[in-house]
What we know:
Elements: H1 2-22, H2 30-42, H3 44-68, H4 79-89
Amino acid sequence: xxxxxxxxxxxxxxxxxxxxxxxxxxxxxxxxxxxxxxxxxxxxxxxxxxxxxxxxxxxxxxxxxxxxxxxxxxxxxxxxxxxxxxxxxxxxxxxxxxxxxxxx
Length: 104
């Protein structure tokens, strides 16, 4: 499941990058004052609205996937749990119960 989230985040990020690169810079100062009129008359304003909405949409998708993906990371067991698993796999040594030291 985590692999699916990674693939979706990468794919969404690539699409977000392409959308951002397609957009024209909005410019400020004098170029924004005089250049903005031509965009509204020629109908380019509608295209920039779609691209801006797409930017926010894919930003939201990437952010949501990044926040949700840690919930699907497999939990690691503690060291004691690992040791208990190892102990159950290893055969136990048996010691004789009646051992008396041998006298020389």
